[in-house]
Amino acid sequence: MGNYVLRRLMIAIPSLLGISLVLFCVLALAPGDPFEELATNPNVPPEVRAALRAKFGIDDPVFVRYFRWLAAMAQGDWGFSFVSRMDVDQLILQRLPATLFVVGLSQLLAIAIAIPVGVFAATRPYSLFDQIASTLAFVGFSLPTFFTGLLLILLFSITLDWLPFVYRSDIAATGWRWWWEQFRQSIMPISVLGFFQAASMTRYVRSAVLDVIRLDYVTTARAKGLGEKVVITKHVVRNALIPVVTLVALQMPAIFGGAIVTEQIFRIPGIGALLISSILANDTPVIMAVTFVFACLVVFFNLVADVLYGWLDPRITYR
Amino acid sequence: MEEKDIRGLISQVKDGSMDRRAFVRTMVGLGLTAPMATMMLLHSGVAMSQVKSTYSATKRGGGGPLKVLWWQGATLLNPHFAVGTKDQDGSRVFYEPLAGWDNEGNLIPILASEIPSRENGGLAADGMSVVWKIKPNVRWHDGKPLTADDLVFNWEYARDPATASVTVGSYKDVEVEKIDNLSVRVKFKKPTPFWADAFVGVRGMLIPKHLFGEYMGAKSRDAPNNLKPVGTGPYKFVDFKPGDLVKGEINMDYHMPNRPFFDTIEIKGGGDAVSAARAVIQTAEYDFGWNIQVEEEVLARLERGGKGKAVVTPGGNIEFILLNNTDPWTEVDGERSSMKTKHPLLSDPAVRKAMALLVDKKSIEQHIYGRAGIATGNFLNSPPRFNSKNTVWEFDIEKAKKLLDDAGWKPGADGVREKGGKKLKMVYQTSINSPRQKTQAIVKQACQRAGIDLELKSITASVFFSSDVANPDTYTKFYCDIEMYTTTMTEPDPGLFMNQYCSWEVATKENKWQGRNICRWVNKEYDDLYRASEGELDPVKRASMFIRMNDLPCGDPTIIPVMFRPRVSVNVDNLVPFLSGWDIDMGSIQEWYRKA
After folding, report:
1. What is the pLDDT of residues B101-117, one digit of tens each?
2. Whether CATH 1.10.3470.10 fits A95-312
């Protein structure tokens, strides 16, 4: 097992290198200039811009810049933001908690909805409950998050005036008031992301359970006289979860992507919002770092999925 | 308006038959800046008026939190590195200049004990120096006193090219010397008519020597205080997350009595302008929203029954159309729009004049910009923009047709005019921005009726405004017949602004298209006037030169001013901000308060 994880991590290195090279080249080809605001400001002589470009090494050829970046990265130096003039890792660390909080909770919410609903619907296929659940699921994943987000803002913030729609990273309160404020401001973004995920996940759980529930060993388990509860939780769900785990794990990066939009709408200071503002400002080191973090997440969650298989199904061995 | 007319107006202000405010507005109407108008009055012995702040709080603090939304949050807090207004605003909460500008162009003393003038001996008669005195007993947030050494240090810090400060332009050509602990002399290399630049306004914010002294030049980026400002401002630093949040708390030792009003200040960044307007006007979650470039229709809808309102602050931004003088479709020595060519169609004055007649500014103002745009025409012939609602500009398709007819441009079979085998077909480019595309459509429609075929082209803003030498679509390359964008006159003095029509500023391959004369217009009279204005000490003479300089490219026309664009912000009903079009929004943050 330990060997397997280690080997997988070693394989991840070349793929990450490849990803970083592609990212770097794409960014180098993209138009724009981090100091363009200086260019339109008559009070800044062109020499200052030239000096800044030279200082940050923007004028060097692409491959020189790439290897410089790679060498620095290997030593744990994530680079230096042109725009904020501070270290990129600091910037990302500042932003990460908000993203993890929102994405994590929305994912938990999605799982908490999808598994019970999916399993229950599958055990009673084509019942009224199943019909309603399916309809809602279809509605759920047809509505993009930027739409439901705005809808919730219009309803709960503007019409009803119940919830704030500007997310604040520092709430000026302590104790239970802090928790209450935090709850009020996070409930909309978390539900927007959570329901969107739950919708497609419910469909997956339902079909996976339906596949398993007809198998002979389930009939055997029932024939042994096991209670329905035990049959479903111990025998059906555990086996049905394998494809679901793959889906959840592989969707994690997509959720971070979906969170970019949600973060922008609710002004959550997460890494998605950082990515957008860096792209708009052509802040290459930050764009590079954030997209690289996303790439690492993809590789990491792939590995997590593979390891989870073994736990769910002991027949799978790692070689 | 000639020099003697301006002198006439000034004497009217002097003897009281004309309001000084009316004079300033008239000058702004002529295309000058309010600070420049005030300088003229000052020079002629009319003192600056006292700043009209309605500030009424009788004690410091107690105003609760002030929460403001900047939909582009501050990304750094060192005023010498502050690129955009968002960074300048963030820095201004903690750092202060010697003086700022109010809406009528008066200098407001902030750290200065008084504004230099001839009378108080601050201004040298030869225009070679100015003496600034700072208030005694001003302390940095860490308790150290502010002295003249700090001023000298800021000059050294900013002018060092290795520091790569964006304020370098204000400091590189001056010398600053300490007179005593509380005063410095700023010396100029040549007689300088506009002396209120270094230490004033957005580029005048002062950082403490004792914290930044070791981080000059190339080490500037390592200063720990780049992210933890220690200034003299009304609020002390609490927290900063780039792009997201700037937080401050009241400075109980602030040097102005009874100020500031609020106990804490929070600048939240991120999101977009429309939702920022919502969070202020509709839900009042925030007190103030910056730079609300929202279409009039949307803004008016939000305001209906809302808890706040939009505030329009006139400044010096002008949306204008440029007509290319060179041929963008022929390549000479590796560049198009080369100075060695002439534009095949636009070199005919009749075509240029017809174009100016075909811009329906009234429709553009009414249907697109609303309160965020004031139609502006030929600067010189127009009555002052603010005094009169019926500003005269011409939109006359028939007249344009006649002009083209007389010049020999005859309509062809497809309705497009032609002359000598050349068809009146042109490409009109601008950046992607909804009001701009709508403006393009309005101009195209009118041109179509007059027999000019315009092809519209829109370019992503990040490309259009970049200085990417390899990209053909940047605004400075101008590989196109006609283009449109906003030129910002944030400078209180139009000196630098007006160099954009000087022949030596033409953007060419040679200067990597960094020249500022984009329409590649060359005019000897203009060049001579500009040279003369550089050394002209008499502000009135200088003003009349600028007015003439304004008139030349507009009358030619090689540019067609479209909209004068004031800044739009939103605030909740009980907040009283102090805004000036000649300074940043936070420029007088110490004067902000809440009505009871």
Report:
1. 887 778 889 999 999 98
2. no
